[in-house]
Amino acid sequence: MSADSSLGDAELHFSGNEADRREGYRLWIKEMNYQEIGNHTKVTEFILVGLSRHPTSQSVVFWTLMFLYIVTLAGNSLIIFLVGGNSQLHTPMYFFLGNLSLLDLLFSTSAVPLIMVNSLYNFSTISYSSCFTQLAVRAFLALAECFLLAIMAYDRLVAISNPLRYNMVMSSRVCIFMALVAWMTALLLTVLPILLFPISFCGHNAVNHFSCEVQAIFKLLCSNTISLEIMMIACAVISMPVPLTFILISYLCILRAVLRIRPTEARLKAFSTCGSHLIVVTIYFGSLIYIYVRPQSKISHNGDKIISIFYAAVTPMLNPLIYTLRNKDVKAALRRVTCRLKS
User: Fold this and answer.
1) 139-188, pLDDT tens digit by residue?
2) For residues 240 and 288, what is the distance between their CA atoms, to the nearest angstrom?
3) Which of 145, 214, 263, 329 has the smallest CB count inside 10 Å?
């Protein structure tokens, strides 16, 4: 079943008043995604439903995403520039912060522009190869951020619990090695399921989402998915619960070390250095758990789309704001750059 024939069938429903058209959309989406497959025609492209059932909301979504994306680009680019251009920020903490900003910049760019474009069209299409390229890139960047946040927690643990040996333990070589491990492990966990378990689609190609979101795509599989699901669960355990557990253990150790610090001011300063990271971890893993860990239904809901937009557009925008607003070193570096530009 091709995209053209699918849209042709859909038009049979889209006549009459607004209520009839919405009911036609609902029935068509349900039929396209969930009826028993009898015609095993190879899928070459997908139809992205997005907000086609709510055309009045499309322009609102477009301009909202435009604003969020511009702020994301500006904020993360600024942090990368400040970390790279200021010798005072050439420390392990800011090295990993620069990596985090790069990940957020790439992740937002891999998702938001396509969602913006698709929000302006009814039933826009995307080719099979483009869809899975986007899916793989987004999975790789999301997994890399999970591991990087865990490394940042370890960095804070060493800085607070063993400050005298901090520079030796977190040397530049060690920092680069740890960052490479995070990126390469994410790449391996992304590529393995693709290479080991090829998948196929047949007949139904309407994705009830703005983009190629993994949960929406997997509802359309007609190949045997048991082995793939087991592999994905294993990858999910390695990429989410393991880093999150490591982060929680690290912060328990940090809390124990901080409570041993006698001066109250020093204790508050130690808590402050961890506050930004804890906020980012809570927002990021909270969004991931809601999207991927909760029980999945066979029907895609509009609420899932909104949470996915929050995860793709809002979270990468918040990270630089959280770090710049709460971090004295970053604000000081920004003031120096501003003064230099004025002079």
Assistant:
1) 899 899 999 999 999 999 998 888 888 989 999 999 999 999 999 999 98
2) 8
3) 263
CA distances from 255 to 12, 38, 248, 282 (A): 63, 59, 10, 17
Tell me which residue has tokens 């860990």.
293
Partners of 206 in beta bridges: 47
Element of type H or E holding 125: strand 124-127
Length of the chain: 343
Extract the tokens encoding 291.
């999207």
CA distances in angstroms from 20 to 12, 14, 16, 308, listed in the order given:
11, 7, 6, 28
Query: For residue 195, what are the contacts with CB-CB under 8 A and spacing of at least 6?
Result: none
Helices 172-196, 92-118: axis angle to 10 degrees equals 30
Widest distance between CA atoms in the chain: 75
The structure's pTM equals: 0.79
Which residues, in sequence order, are CB contacts of 119 under 8 Å at separation 6+?
A: 50, 51, 58, 61, 62, 65, 210
**How far is it, in rounded angstroms, from Cα 51 to Cα 29?**
12
CA dist., res. 239 & res. 79, Å (int): 26
